[in-house]
Structures
1.
Amino acid sequence: MQMAFFFNQTRCSGCLTCVVACRQWHSIDRERTSWRRVETIEEGSFPDLRVSFLSLSCLHCENCPCIPSCPSSAMTKREQDGIVLVDPQKCLGGSTCGHCRKACPYAMPQFNPNQDCKMEKCNFCLDRLAQGRRPICVEACPMGALDSGPFDELSKGYGANREAEGFRFSEKANPSILFKGKDGYRRVK
């Protein structure tokens, strides 16, 4: 089984509730790191403007480039659900390393300067998952733009679309995310 996220780009208003909920749940210093981020995609010129939003966290890729790039084996992928984790005790830290961030096509691993520059990233809210709950970003989204669950179940319910405006799908990494993209979006090359 591979856990995954679903993002409905047509519903996202860019409110950042998912980002704030994640920071609060995980006690993340909002000035330093963000395990989930929302990107604003603006196109056109007045009066023909288009604005879209893209909410992303670690995509717990099927073929994670961060794992083999880590010289200390701090990055691992759980066999039972495909969730990618980082062990801060094994991480060499920002002054020495950073290979996992460079290898990630989405630049999701981040150094926390308050934790001796150890790498951190979305852990799919493992504490909530253990209680049968969904990640906090999913539960907090007021627009219902996010969902999570086993990849196969999400694809049965939402389809197999892997593209959205502003997103570059990496066939090599094969990120565990599905989308409902905006109609008429332009594929990012």
Note: The helical segments are 17-25, 66-69, 99-103, 126-130, 136-140, 151-158.
2.
Amino acid sequence: MTRRAVFLRTILLGLIGIVAVVLLIDPPRGIPRALLAVNPVVLLLLLGGVGALTAQKAGLRSMLILKDPIDRTALVRTAILAVVLGLAFALSDHLLSPMWRADDLADPKTLLEAASLSTLGLGLTYGAITEEILMRWGLMSGLMLWMMTYASRTSAAIIALSFAALIFAAGHLPALIAGEVALSPALLVRIFAINASLGAWFGWLYFRNNLETTMIAHAGFHVGAFGMAVLWL
């Protein structure tokens, strides 16, 4: 498959989540809805291009983009584990919220409180598809290939997935800042503990299996978190 074909398949796949962002997120008053797509599209073009150039060279796999074979059993196991983790994370995050959220603050919401059909839709599309293309397919692949010049493939993967996980966690901060939420040390620990640990797991799945396994894991986590919200009610 040519690099152009790989790039086009990457972009088309990533656009699924961006369309969901435009449809499901209400923009601030006076801001055209289409502008919500600008930053994600730029990131998709940049990091999607990086992944198209580096993923195969780093020995990383994808069924949807590269037409690599896929282990369906691994997908099922991953989906089940991800749903369980989503249930557990949502419940523990809610129960531990007094540790990171002041009593007089309504925001930020816990994973359980934030669960809704729209956030589930975004999680299954932008989160599970587009974010995984950006963070794993693009950022992790590019960094891993670069680090393979200096370290073994496994060591390079660990460094790359760790860095991508931290960037993935930091990527959740701008929305809080825009909402004028005070980023206390406890809240920062909570954000990075949840998202960096998940990002590291997604990265390991990408390294050991393929991109689709990370997408299934990401989607399953959101399904589990939503399921806990339904059970809690």
Note: The CA atoms of residues 96 and 110 lie 9 Å apart.
3.
Amino acid sequence: MVEDIATARPMAAISLTAARLSFAGAATFVVLLVALHFIKPEVDPSWHFISEYAIGDSGWIMEFAFLSLALSYVSLFVAIWSQLRTSAGRIGLALLLVSALGLTIAAVFTTDPITVSEDAVTTEGTLHSLGGTLGIAMPFAAASVGWKLARNPAWYSARRSLLWATGLAVVAFLFSFVSLGVMVSRSGGEFGPNVPVGWPNRIEIVVYSVWLMVVARQAMHLRRRNPETTGRTVAGRRA
């Protein structure tokens, strides 16, 4: 780490409208995901991925949920762009957009059933998987953005909430990644009722949504409290 001895630097104000959209988009996703557990009870949450709610009747609800979460990512990017001036912070913001692109692809292209054989995989299912792969950028975005905002003197009052939410996002990713790897290796790459990959998948995406809501909520609080000065930073540390 190096010391940044620069003087205070003016920055554009946080976008209150974008922060509100980000919070609303993430909240909408969580509400719709919970609702789908009751709307489509045939999709066992213990071993089906959330993407499978998009298959068949009422599938548009899951597609809309994905798009709502993508909107949350993009809106948060707009809301806090002015608050991150370091390379690491800007990389984190770029990864938010990569995650949004992945969610959009996942919404447009419906996944194949988890039990589909390799020779029956469709082009649409493959493209959906591509979207899911891009979504892996999210925990890295959360780690970079959350850490850099917590180090921004203007966000000092939100530091504890940011660090908690960011830590949970990273832990949720590691838990999902490791548990999925262990379960799949034990099952020989086969999915089914005896391979409970569904809950880690749900926990991970819900925690990401919580992270988005925490950051957006803190952005709204700071913007309302200091409408003229929230966008200003003082001398501090920079990575």
Note: Confidence is low (pLDDT under 50) at residues 1-11, 229-239.
4.
Amino acid sequence: MLGPPGAGKGTQAERFAQQHGLPKISTGDMLREGIKQQLPLALLAKERMDRGELVDDETMIGIVRERLGRQDTKEGFILDGFPRTVFQGRALDGIMADRHNGALIVVDVVVPEEELVRRLAARRICSACGTNAESGDSVCRRCGGTLVHRTDDDEGVVRERFRVYTQESKPLLDYYRGRPTFCAVNGAQLPERVFQEVEAAINGAARAAARHSVGAQG
């Protein structure tokens, strides 16, 4: 799942993963866990994120490589928050080349900048588990924890994150765009409608990947 911060890709990834019995792998969740444990590398990453910067490629690649090597990913997985750069995308291709089943399907959740600023200004997360809150919630639905405003959801930081995303991550779309497994969905809709588009896009991309595989073998 690709898309700018606040596009809703985490929510869509979580729902798709639950519906299809796949693990959702979020680098953000891994970093938050490291921050709770006061790990130096995770704390350095937090400083960068609070300034609206991206965490360096090598750190993210190492985290993802280790996670995708676990047993629960053998039948598939949903990646949320990775890759963010062409360098990371190439590294992911290398990781996927070592796997013997399935194709990499890329979903870009598209949302305009002003809509992202509006959304993130109102967003709350759980201080205990890091889950994004649903609109109108007073406590976390997952663990009952206290909801707080993220330090990196300030309007100035949001716009800086969007600028960084456009500059450093958007070229990744050009890297993937020509593939039969690339698809884009309109994220500026109600979550239910976005999910329907995500399902349809992934199913279409999977069929395209199967046709491409048969053609390559022929």
Note: The beta strands are 24-26, 78-80, 106-110, 125-126, 147-148, 182-186.
